[in-house]
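User: Um, what's this?
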Amino acid sequence: MTDRSVPADRHRFQNMWHLRVLGDIDICFLRAVLQMGWVDRLQWLDIGIVHKAESALDVIRLIASTAGPGVLRRLDVSVEGSPDDIQMDCIEPLLGFCELRELYLRPAFDYAGFPALTVADVCRIACAWSSLEHLVLDIRCPASSLLVFAKGCPMLVSLAVGIFVDEELGRMSADIGLPQSRSLESLTMSGYFDYREVVLCAFAKRVFPQASQTIVRLEEVERIGEDIDYSDRFDEEDISMEVDEE
């Protein structure tokens, strides 16, 4: 379904397990879709919005108030953050979704314009989502918090996060007794690293010895300082649903 009509026959979708809503959609239309009675039974919810008047926090609060925290297994959210958004505030409404196995959270914050998460913030995240297997968190985290993910999310197979090199990393790098996670297969770190990249990669290799590493140097990305382009995710507005047959 690619128009803006909301299905009237709700009973038809009682067995729906996957909902995908993508495009230049305002929050009123999204609310009308998500407040239908079957959304709390979804296992996979995929929301991508490029409507710049919306707040990432408003969109995430709406998702948290309508989806089923004990049912949802995968959540994909791409929405452009506004200057009033604070990263942890945008994450906190989702911490009750403890059954998540996959989370892809891309609030498109300007890395230079928004404060980063703290190690304490990452501890709360890892504690809430300890069963995650795949995590994309497009928000800056302290490099030393990689250790928190290793200890708190032992089932992680892939991890992609924004990273900045904090002072604590130097002390931890000298610690020969660092805990390790051997489940992680893929680690992607995005940020501005300059000469500290070598130290960061060495630390990450000690924490995740089996993981392949990908470094995204934001100073080399051509679109830095420009609007985020979601065209690689979708070319037009789209609502799609997957329903189990009775």
